[in-house]
Design goal:
2 copies of one chain form a homodimer. By secondary structure, chain A is mainly α. Helices cover about 65% and strands about 5% of the residues of chain A. The first copy, chain A, has 33 helices and 6 strands. Chain A has a 4-stranded antiparallel beta sheet. Chains A, B: It is a multi-pass membrane protein.
Chain lengths: ~750, ~750
């Protein structure tokens, strides 16, 4: 058990490392050479141009203005200053709502922390249960926790009362937030300009007709069943092979550019390469000629494949994007059942064009059900048995195993210092590698499940990751043993025994989780803002691949909020906060600092860095809400279990009510708000339709929609963002409230419009 | 433990009592005087007229043809002969599908019984585990059960294999039946004539508007949001007080008729009554004059209330039946979200006019959620604590308690014989009374929950009753102690321990359940067909109240299938059959006889007796399916528990897969078929609309719908069945395949059309 001093030392170390990251970030971001790493969003929006193209030679790369270094912390207030409507307009609703999760954390935990310190800490401190036990080493942290209250003490009434107050407050905060987010979403949808997905419905499982082609069949079906509303449709081609070929050509082009750059810099020697595996094996050839020939070959193949896909009726999949004359017509089609056989003619809202996951559009109904079954079994095994293959790898990856596989390394390995390093690190490496590839595994599993949009893939992967964290990080840290051993134990314990077993260990693990919060939360978030990997990758690409402005734009990796991995991690902090709120309140300030710090950092990131791949309009909020509800129920059950071991018999009956009320609250919120995230009300559709008819009576909708849902490989230009969105972003509905600032070191700023990046230099 | 002989004796007794009921039934139904008790359906359809009105004097009341008595069993083949399409046409889809539940029972259990007797009985019989245990009395039944297989025997592989085969067969039968019922429903809906509910949507939670009345607000909203489809609407009046007054007048009329009849038969003495409580207390008055005056008084009150309801804007509730120009328009409105606030403008399919439960139409959203919470808590307490009030009543209702309350009965009670009767019966009476009123309590709870149609009330009550039977009849019989004690025990046992505890007791309870099946199943069903209560009530009413033909028609109580209580009872048999299929196969033939016998009896009843109050188109099938799935999962878990105590360690892992597969099968079926029971596909709506437009281009739909959804008390005539249904029934789509039969003793048959009652006399 760590004492308060130990915790303070750990806090100091982690606070210092976080501060170091922040200072490094503040230094790096001021260098013009890193401008594209730390402000890519403004480049992508076309507001900021390249600082390297103009100015003095040295100041092109290094910032020489000492004043700016003194104001290095200025980015924080700048990140907080942008008002929310402008933020939504600038970064999209998804990002704006995402940072609200941190805000919700603050809203829930700041009052709880204040109350817990005002009431629970004195109540716990003024006992002497721990002092009375002989031969027990305890720390000052434990003196502040519920462990210090003797069994059967009437003081537990205070803890029960606080549990109720904390629950009520959490419900209130959750309800209010759900309402705010639902309103934001409805307002966002109402304010949006014309977008293809507003008129379009994705139809899947089109039945095959012996007399008609797929496209004719679709047209006839919708002409008959939606006679006044059907406008046009776009069948889906199976272009997976073509997409692979296009990717291949792009990567060959990259290599060609690399060798051409190399040749330009050193014209005396033409670069060579080998034709075999990774350019290591095979015969040596002239690199530029080789890749030029290769590209030509694959371009021809690509053209042939393109021809084949377009002409072969077998490459048309039984799915289509059907567009309607009005939003009302599309809303009707998306929300109704079309056929009496509910496994054909399945309709749902079309995702945004850039949100479509093309590979999954043509999976038949029965196959989908089987895939879901297989994936749920796999998920179960992944969560509870993932240690099995890792232990096998670990047992094989020892000194003797390596010696067998690569005998020529034997002398090196036998060296004592090397041996100890290998023995120390190897077991950990297998686990680390697994944890690194875990999000990819989960995403692959979601893809196999057959989801049709990137946003839903992200949401489903997040749900899987949340389960993994819950079982393996939270429960795994509290109870020793692998997840499977836990499961085995739980199955052999009674329903009332499980919360007791876990609950009893809760106070003892407080210091561990405090350290975890500081390492993973504080330093992790601070590391996020430095963007080390994109920084290195950008400079490598910039050196070897970039020739034109367009290349440089492509080398820039803005990244995006990774909902699938980061949201479940936030949920762990909600869970820890709720579980420890009534048990060990000392943990709460660390949670609050995490939420506050993350809020600032991510607000900065979404303003200056991230470029979202899609805009789902915050459809993930019901998931966030549900997981906080799960955390709350877990917290209530564990407190119940803990109290029942403390000989507070009345407590079980009193606490039993809380999980049920929480469950009911969840159902109530679901009924109240959920449909705002899944359905599009006819009234709103009608309002937008009417408005549009009045303002643009002669708009050619058919032409507008014709090309919207074409597989990206068929488009001449890259499908980065559809026209309509750009239109809107260039003409924001909310006028910016910030003044234009001219910055000396960045000459490009002079041509910036009214929106400028957040800069500390003013 | 009962031996095979004991069981055979019990079977003999119960079989004999069932046979006696059948013979009594066969005798009674041949008497013309009972014709309206045993063939009310044909009277209600107008096909059969009164046999009492014509013929010889004696044969008006008693059947004197000896031939007919010899053929008394002929009703059975007659009941089975009517082909299903004709049955649907004659009795409605609800009834036709209801008897298919029994058919499904046969389909599942006949092959299982054959297989179990061919494989499991020999496997169990040829062991000697029971013989090897000293000091154990065992019966021949146990020799046939799994108890006779010694622990750790490899023969358990056979039981596990059989459990898999039984589960696969049950899935197959369930899947096929779901498909058949879904097809029947779709076909039924497609074949239906015009009905008001096809065009109508029930709108609830209409928001209040300060500037408009409710009816204006509704009209404007739908004119704007469904401009091409909205036709008309009918607001809902709060007519609960008025309905009570109308009921009161009707009951006073009954009494007046009674006294008038009495006076006519004995004109010398004018009947008297007392004005006070139940005609016992108060001053004596002339009965006919008194009731005439009373009726006049209440009629005036009724008229005033009627006036008030029609004119007072406060009696208009924020709900309405909105009708559309086409089925397509109604289908769209019923399936879509109307407003961005999902707690207002809630739309759902309107129930049939006679299916509407008027009292619940105006409950706001938040109140509904609170009511549901309260009811679920109440249901929990009712199921687990219902013994508490009963024990209190039992402890009070003893000899001393009665002496205190009614001291003048003291000498009588002190009599030894009376005393022993009271002591023997009293404790049971409280429980019996509770069980009799239980369905009413459950129905009241469902009404409080706020459901808007009688069919959904029936379904919800059935779900509650099913839970009660599961906990208190099934588990309560297996494990001793009250439900609450069981719950307490389960909460303190591990998840793996619970199936073991229950599973171990399963084989021991086989004889108990065999007796239960014979008493409740065999004799109970045979008693159903005699219709003792309606028989007595009809003859009482006929004697005292009937004056005109209309009176006689009203005195006839056809009754109806009581889904809320009878379906959960069938589910108990499914559960018993599935649980015992692999444990004690001897029980299976009793189940099979129950299903076969019930099938014949209920098929007879729905053809000749029952008159359904509503037609929901078999919307209850998903519930039936789900509960059989629940029974299957319980059976699998209990077998797993039982096997794990038999030292068959591999069994747990092998059996664990089954519940998960069953769960998945359920989800698959739900996705595949459920929407056929909840949604109305646009394609089908369009087909019917188009057909109708072609055949009746000038039909005045508005006039047709205007009066359809008016509260019954506002209608001049009784709302028994809407016009459209009668139309259809008189012109059946399926031509009858049966020949008209002229029956001597029933002269009225001569005017019968092509459809005639099922008679054994040919």
């Amino acid at each position: 058990m760590a004492s308060l001093q130990d915790i303070a030392v750990a806090a100091g170390i982690n606070g210092f490392s976080a501060l170091m990251f922040l200072i490094i970030f503040a230094m790096l971001r001021l260098q013009p050479i890193n401008d594209r790493v730390y402000f890519p969003k403004w480049y992508l929006k076309g507001i900021r141009a390249n600082p390297v193209t103009a100015g003095k030679t040295v100041s092109k790369f290094v910032n020489l203005d000492p004043n700016m270094y003194l104001k290095f912390w200025k980015w924080m207030p700048a990140a907080l200053n942008m008002p929310e409507p402008e933020l939504i307009d600038h970064a999209g609703l998804d990002s704006a709502v995402y940072v609200r999760i941190y805000l919700l954390g603050l809203k829930i935990f700041v009052p709880i922390t204040v109350l817990a310190f005002a009431v629970l800490v004195p109540v716990n401190w003024t006992n002497d249960a721990l002092q009375n036990i002989q031969n027990l080493t305890y720390s000052s942290i434990d003196k502040l926790s519920i462990s210090n209250v003797p069994s059967g003490s009437p003081r537990f009434w205070v803890h029960i009362g606080m549990a109720y107050i904390f629950s009520f407050w959490t419900w209130y905060a959750l309800y209010e937030e759900y309402q705010i987010v639902a309103d934001m979403r409805l307002h966002f949808i109402a304010g949006e300009g014309r977008r293809p997905d507003q008129y379009t419905v994705l139809v899947r499982n089109v039945p095959l007709d012996p007399d008609e082609s797929v496209t004719e069949h679709i047209e006839h079906f919708f002409c008959v069943n939606h006679p006044d509303h059907y406008l046009t449709h776009q069948v889906v081609y199976n272009a997976n092979t073509l997409a692979a070929l296009v990717d291949n050509v792009r990567s060959l082009n990259n290599r060609l550019t690399y060798y051409q750059n190399k040749y330009e810099r050193n014209p005396k020697r033409r670069p060579k390469t080998k034709t075999g595996f990774l350019g290591i094996l095979g015969s040596t050839v002239d690199a530029i000629d080789h890749y030029k020939a290769e590209i030509e070959k694959f371009c021809k193949e690509e053209a042939a494949e393109r021809e084949k896909v377009m002409s072969d009726p077998n490459s048309i999949m039984p799915a289509a994007f059907v567009s309607f004359k009005s939003r009302w017509g599309a809303a009707v089609c998306a929300q109704t059942t079309q056929s009496s056989n509910p496994t054909i003619w399945l309709t749902e809202w079309a995702p945004e064009p850039r949100d479509v996951y093309w590979d999954n559009l043509a999976i038949p109904y029965v196959k989908l059900a089987v895939r879901r079954l297989v994936i749920s079994f796999s998920l179960f095994f992944l969560v509870f048995f993932f240690m099995v293959p890792i232990s096998i790898v670990q047992s094989m990856a020892n000194i003797e195993g390596i010696e067998k596989v690569v005998p020529f390394l034997k002398p090196l390995i036998r060296e004592k210092s090397v041996k100890s390093i290998i023995q120390g690190f190897l077991p950990g490496i297998a686990l680390k590698l697994f944890l690194i590839v875990l999000p990819t595994i989960l995403m692959t599993m979601s893809k196999i499940e057959g989801l049709t949009s990137l946003s839903s893939l992200d949401r489903k992967s997040a749900a899987k990751f949340h389960l993994f964290i819950l079982v393996n990080v939270f429960l795994g840290s509290i109870i020793t043993g692998t997840a499977f051993q836990q499961l085995h134990k739980f199955l052999h314990q009674s329903a009332t025994e499980i919360p007791k077993t876990v609950g009893v260990s809760i106070p003892m693990k407080a210091t561990f989780f405090i350290t975890y919060i500081m390492v993973d939360g504080w330093s992790g978030i601070a590391a996020e803002i430095v963007r080390l990997t994109p920084l290195v990758v950008f400079h490598l690409k910039n050196t070897f691949l970039v020739k034109t402005e367009k290349d440089r734009k492509e080398a820039m990796d803005a990244g995006s909020l990774d909902f699938a991995t980061s949201e479940p991690r936030i949920q762990l902090y909600f869970l820890l906060g709720l579980v420890y709120s009534a048990v060990t309140p000392v943990l709460l300030p660390f949670i609050v600092i995490f939420f506050a710090f993350s809020y600032v950092v991510f607000r900065h990131q979404i303003i200056n860095v991230y470029d979202q791949k899609y805009e789902s309009g915050a459809t993930f909020w019901p998931d966030v809400h549900r997981r906080i509800i799960i955390a709350l129920i877990i917290a209530q059950l564990l407190l119940m279990g803990l109290l029942s071991t403390k000989k507070a018999t009345y407590s079980t009956y009193l606490m039993m009510l809380l999980p049920f009320l929480t469950m009911w609250f969840h159902l109530f919120c679901k009924g109240r708000f959920n449909s705002a995230f899944t359905e599009f009300p006819l009234q709103d559709a009608m309002v937008k339709d009417t408005l549009e008819k009045a303002t643009e009576p002669n708009f050619n909708l058919k032409a507008y929609l014709e090309e919207a849902y074409i597989h990206p490989v068929f488009k001449a230009v890259e499908l980065d963002r559809p026209m309509a969105i750009n239109d809107e972003e260039n003409n924001p509905l909310v006028a910016t409230t910030r003044n234009a600032v001219v910055v000396g070191t960045h000459p490009s700023h002079e041509d910036g419009p009214k929106q400028v990046p957040l800069e500390p230099e003013e």
